[in-house]
Amino acid sequence: MMRISRAVLCAFALVLVAAPIAGQQPTFRSSTALVQVDAIALDGDDQFVKGLAAGDLQIFEDGKPQRIDQFYMVTHDPVTRASSIAADEAGRPAAAAHRVFIIVFDEGHLAPESLMRVQKGAEQFIMTHIGPGDAAGVFVNGELYQGRLTTDKGALLAGVRSAKAAIESRQSLLAAFREWPRIPSENDALRITEGARELLMSLATEACRAEPILCDAAGGMQEGVVGKIEQKARYYVRTARDLTSRTVQTITAISESLGKYAGRKTLVLMSEGFFVEDSRSSIERTAGRAARAGVTIYSIDGRGLVTATGTPDVLSTGAARSTVFDTGEDGPAILTSGTGGLMVRNLDDMSRAFGMVARDTSTYYVIGYSPTNAKVDGKFRKIEVKSTRPGVKIRARKGYMATKLPPQETIFR
Q: What kind of fold does domain 6-166+241-401 have according to CATH?
């Protein structure tokens, strides 16, 4: 998997200007001072609640109530595939609304079988859910396919099919943990690299107790087994950190490039998860920057049905895949919850997984407010959206990084 270069980031940013979607007129322009929050309102049966007005919602930033300056609902009709804005106040824009999707293959965190699984789901998503008013792009093999967003389904399908499995992936690294001498988890590997001598000696002792012949062949516990465990732990942590860094760089680059465009942007991350034991704060900042740019992140676990025990089986549909040694789901969870998206996991039917993303992006409310704290200090601001209607729960991004956005444009012209 190629390291994300500065040239690739620049090319991605420029193509959004160079290749607008023709034939459409912008519906509105947002102020850079305005913070916009996409909100999903659900009832007790997890069905979307329509008909809310601005007065039915409350929004708080760092615990302080904010005045709602902008409020409307966007609906995408799955039959006609037309999108529209319904406003609760006269004079609000009511012309067309559009969706932008970025489909991201996280190849370094997808085993070959998982990659094939999500490729099939992505193809079905493009054919079924990408409408004439939508634009999309495929980020694959370290770059935006053909360097552009497009409405051409043929080009999008070609991008999806161009994804290639990484030579070294997260699952291939974790597979080494199952081999003698074993390491129980990622966290244990990290602790060993940080000098946890008692843990190291305990694992070496257990390895020699379980396999004395292999222990003798390796040169004994002190001479050989301890070194093998240390080497395995260091290699895993070093490589896993690098893979995580590439994933975070990709998401950051996409968010920054899309930040100048008004409206909702959906990033669909296809990944099995990634090493987060010592990079949680960095991932939280990435989510905060994406939220400020109006990017909502959804993640789809390519492993399908998983379990914490049992023998790994990624070939048989419906067979539980093991998550032993694997604690990487926290990464996608931070990104999705921080931006108001969903983490879709434990589904072998990838068409259903992508369908959940499509449904979630089809109808939502947009809340805009000018923060009472107008400082652009780069700090994280916590957001909370509540409904005053009984029985209505709201899912929205949890906050954003207080950074300045460039003048807002529309990608549709």
A: Rossmann fold (3.40.50)
